[in-house]
Write a structure and sequence with these properties.
InterPro entries: HAD-like_sf, HAD_hydro_PyrdxlP_Pase-like, HAD_sf, Pase_PHOSPHO-typ. Keywords: Hydrolase, Magnesium, Metal-binding. GO terms for molecular function: metal ion binding; phosphatase activity. The N and C termini lie close together (10 Å). A 3-stranded parallel beta sheet has the order 1-2-3. A two-stranded antiparallel ribbon has the order 4-5. The chain has 8 helices and 5 strands; from the N terminus they run βαααααβαβββαα. The radius of gyration is 17 Å and the shape is globular. The protein has a single domain, classed as Rossmann fold, CATH 3.40.50.1000.
Length: 167
């Protein structure tokens, strides 16, 4: 199996839901999210939602605890571990964000099974607020792919590295 690359999406693939919607819904911000959704791009909206959570006293620890409750089918854990044991190079390509993905993977002991995670960057700022950024700055340099969201082209993200690997 050496040389085989397995690329996973994250939301609705590794986990059984959309991680952004999970956090917003579980922490009681669905109404505001739905109100703002038509007014801004998704990543901008999620960054704004993290600002709202922070302003209402929701801590990073509470967001982490919420993420640890995300439903994950037990067979996906087995599939990931089995592919890794067989020598497959496992990667994630997702329009979620790094903080959510890493929190969930670490909670389930799966972080070390993946060699690469391509997703929207996120970080906790000096005020303790989670910030979420787009993978591509879609306002200044859109990727012009009609198949993908404007902030992340999933079609071409792995293409150069995949074709350089020995088969």
């Amino acid at each position: 199996m050496a040389g085989i690359v397995v690329i996973f999406d994250f939301d609705k693939t590794i986990i059984d839901c959309d991680s952004d919607n999970w956090v917003v819904d579980e922490l009681g911000f669905t109404q505001l999210f739905n109100q703002l959704l038509p007014t801004m791009p998704w990543n901008t909206l999620m960054d704004r939602m993290m600002s709202e959570l922070h302003s209402q006293g929701i801590t990073i620890k509470q967001i982490e605890e919420c993420l640890k409750r995300v439903p994950l089918h037990p067979r996906i854990i087995t599939a990931i571990k089995s592919a890794h044991v067989l020598g497959c190079d496992l990667r994630i390509l997702s329009d979620a964000n790094r903080f959510f993905i890493e929190t969930i993977l670490k909670h389930h002991g799966l972080m070390d099974y993946f060699s690469e995670i391509n997703t929207n960057p996120s970080f906790v700022d000096e005020e303790g607020r989670l910030r979420i950024r787009p993978y591509h700055d879609f306002t200044s340099s859109p990727h012009r792919c009609n198949l993908c969201p404007p902030n992340m082209c999933k079609v071409f993200t792995f293409t150069p590295t995949l074709f350089q690997q020995p088969v």
